[in-house]
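Re-running the complex after MR caught last week's input typo. The corrected sequence lines follow. Everything else is unchanged.
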Amino acid sequence: MTTATLWVIPGGLAALSLAYLIVPRKRLGWVSGVVVLFLGFWLVTLPLNLWRGAGPLATWFFVTVAILSIFGVWYSGPYIRREAESHQWSPGRVKGYFVFFTLFIASLAALAIWTNFIFLWIALEVATLTSAVLTAHPAERGSVEAAWKYVVVTELGGLVALLGTILALSAAGSPLFAWTPGLSHGILSSSHQHWALIGAYMALVGYGTKAGLAPFHTWLPDAHSEAPAPVSALLSGLKLAGAMIIVYRLFHVLAASVASVYLDDALILLGLLSLVIAAGFLTFQHDLKRLWAYSSIEHIGLISLGMGFGGIALVGAFLHIWTHAISKTLLFHNAGTVRILYHSSHTDYGARGILQRTPWTGALLALGSAAIVGLPPFAPFWSEWLILAGGLHQVNNRPFVIIAAALVVIIFIAIARRVPGWLFTPGPVGPPPVKPIQEPAGLILPSAVLGLFVVAGGIGLPLAVHPLWHHLVSQLRVTHL
Amino acid sequence: MSTWLLLATALLWLTTVAMMIVKTPRSMTVLYRIQAVAEAGVVAQLALVGHHPWLWSVAVLIVVLKLIIIPAVVTRWLAPLNSVYGAQGPVGMTALLMLALVLSGGGIVIGQLGLPNPLPIGLVFAAMMVTFVQLSGRYEVWNLLWGILSLETVMDVGALTLGTGIPVVGEVGIGVTGLALALALSYVAAQVRRIKHSLDVRDLEELIG
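Corrected-run output:
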């Protein structure tokens, strides 16, 4: 199967989204089952060489999208059922959630497998618009306000990205509508080089807004904290990374015509700025979902740094797309469970003493937190290490790596200080022991399986990709500090 | 450079400036439709001069979407807003116009720096910057909504003028995305109106800090 014929994946998911409108509410789970089987089919047939993506990056991101979307669909079932019960959602609203959620997944799958810049832009727009509608779906003041801010800010960015992409590609003489955009090796005039660079910067600002890179991140904490938990998970883990992958693809095409140092420096600058913003704001968060939202800014910053450093750090950045996505999906699902069980994810409004009152939820929060701050042996440790060590490999990047490492340590301390507030601080309803809360298996099971993935992924990663790992370590060994 | 292309982009710029200063949602709808005529004019001109007959179908699509469907959808969903609007902006209109003039001059100068069709593309850059001013100068829901839709038209014209290599399927995709944008904006704007009973979004809690 060629890349151009892989329309069937997003197209099939879009068609399945309409099935939610047809079936009665009690049978929505059947459609979700078909969506999971559909994604599973494309995952299973990938190693059988029945089809392939347009390169390793496309295949890698598709695997990430498919696996985490399966968890998203699985967790959405019990989560939305409880949300609908407690907020008296109409059957139409419940169906609407699943329609838009499946369309959101379809757009993410398209982001993974398409390589044409116009269609990548369209896929990202569909991802933005569907997730904005999903953010407003609870129809509460906070969620509607967050959705408004999200759609206005990111659409502004998206439109700038469109013009920037076309300007850059036109100036560089690269075909605008190629499915496999090649490098443009022709010698450009000074004027064309300038316009290609201006277009690239416009695209970076636009897609950076979509990715939540600082200083264009202002929509992100609100949208992530107010959207339904499965939507927050896919937004943070996949949509942000999808925008960064478009930037990487564009800069890769432009690298032959524009001095790549300008492009790399811009990525490093925005990456560092994102770490600064995350470090500054994580320290003061009292809402669990908002904490992980700012953490997403940090991790997108790290991915941007890895792409800017290049070389081994680039491998780390691509690996980090998966390690961040799986850890953050676990944490957002967990935060959704906390919000349902405690009616808030805010420490000041009762979400405290979680480990004692809801041991499974507390244990998964502790596990996910240990993973996301980059503690060994969890997978984010390996990817962050590759990004920073890969940066150190190049002499010019060392000052940036030192600053980034210091900021990562500050962020580690901030999260390590905040999380015990949810886990251990006694609840507000009087002296301990506080009455335990029953944890529904439907909410816990998807997160527990994700927790196993997080543990196995960290320990098994160097073993699973041993030849690549051996090569990377041997490359790093020749670094002279 | 074609005179018709210049006239179409000049009309686009003029309506963009007008959208910045008008105070009623009804006027926005009219101006948005005129903008769509300007965009269709640019597409028709590119179809004639560039001998791209498929661009005629894009022109028809723009007319259908932006002259009929999108204004109808937005007006229907935001019907309660049509008769309720604020007459005061945070910045004086004279100051806004002077700023728009300076930015427009800047846009036209940018167009002269080695791009094809310098004056028309300069007017597109000018319209883009004026829309940025509109988006930051006024805070009513309907104003931001039409501002984003106006920017979408401006960027679409920019993309068409610069990227003549985009085939019809890409242009149709961009056009349909514009419709989806209008639908999503209208839906969220209607929700804002429902929960706030007001048009001014400056006091939205999530927007502060």
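None of the earlier attempt is carried over here. Residues 89 and 138 of chain B are 6 Å apart (CA to CA). The helical segments of chain B are 3-21, 25-49, 55-77, 93-111, 118-137, 141-162, 168-196.
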